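TICKET: design request
STATUS: open
ATTACHED STRUCTURE:
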């Protein structure tokens, strides 16, 4: 979908997603790193007219696309055939996660909101905890609550 493994056109990417949807697929996964944003743009375009309650869409956080300046050398592990002019950066800080989420929303063309965590949910970092903030580093729970 992003173009790293095989070059396909935007129209072909939409047709591919439409075919999956027509066959009953209702879970779609993407990432800012798949085609350095191209996969999210294509996935958003393909799903935009579908009833939003009919499918689940996931992407990744902490992956920020840095706009490269003219003449700036790409990173050593840069992959060709991605969206031109962007290089990936991992940033799992609070601000990086929020920025990556906001940028993904723009590329996907969707709005998102934070649901109240299910009190039955058990968090891997803190088994038995019923408070999602317990799994976050000190101070981040308050920031997450304010972000609602």
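STATUS: resolved
RESOLUTION: sequence designed for all positions
ATTACHED SEQUENCE:
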């Amino acid at each position: 979908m992003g173009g790293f493994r095989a070059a396909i056109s935007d129209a072909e990417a939409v047709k591919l997603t439409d075919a999956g949807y027509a066959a009953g697929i209702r879970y779609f996964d993407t990432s800012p790193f798949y085609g350095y944003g191209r996969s999210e743009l294509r996935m958003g375009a393909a799903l935009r007219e579908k009833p939003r309650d009919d499918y689940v869409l996931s992407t990744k956080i902490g992956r920020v696309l840095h706009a490269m300046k003219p003449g700036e050398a790409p990173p050593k592990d840069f992959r060709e055939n991605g969206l031109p002019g962007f290089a990936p950066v991992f940033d799992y800080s609070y601000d990086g996660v929020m920025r990556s989420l906001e940028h993904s929303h723009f590329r996907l063309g969707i709005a998102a909101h934070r649901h109240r965590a299910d009190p039955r949910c058990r968090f891997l970092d803190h088994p038995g905890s019923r408070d999602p903030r317990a799994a976050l580093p000190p101070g981040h729970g308050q920031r997450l609550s304010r972000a609602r």
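CLOSING REMARK: The two ends are 32 Å apart (CA to CA). The CA atoms of residues 24 and 55 lie 10 Å apart.
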